[in-house]
Fold this protein.
Amino acid sequence: MVEKITIVNVFVCKICGEAYIGDKAPSRCPFCGAYKKYLVKGKDYNDTGDWDVELNGKDRANAERALEVEVSNTIFYKCASKKTPKLEGQKLFKILAKVENEHASVWKKILKLDKVELPEYDACASEYKPNLEESHSREERAIKFYNQAASESSNPRLKEIFEAFVEVETDHLNLSEQRLK
């Protein structure tokens, strides 16, 4: 019996720079959640300049605010994943924390920071529904901010990241909307 050999590729996300191994590109980056359109075969990827972005004053302020948003959301979701009693909620908030943390990592690279501290946070609810409601509010604010920042940016790389994160945060918003019904 001859085994079929699966051709495995390396795909790189143009938004976060992380690599994925698989026979085909996933529908979303497993790290930052960016849509498939941002995933390229590793052999076709060149990150020269992706993280060496010239920031004018407005772009720097928006990138710094984006970092604050993502750090805040990361620590909220980590808290919610620990306190929510339902297993489905724990898993949902845990993966959201990972994705938001990856977003923070993108802004850390853009801002050329060595490290980003995640402060302690314990102000989330111990019930699923209030955490979903808070998640919904956070995602709405992030989407609004990222849309505004994308429209204000004249830098194509920053605009691309802001727009990609609008799509990802909209997915997150849909997750909470579905569960709040």
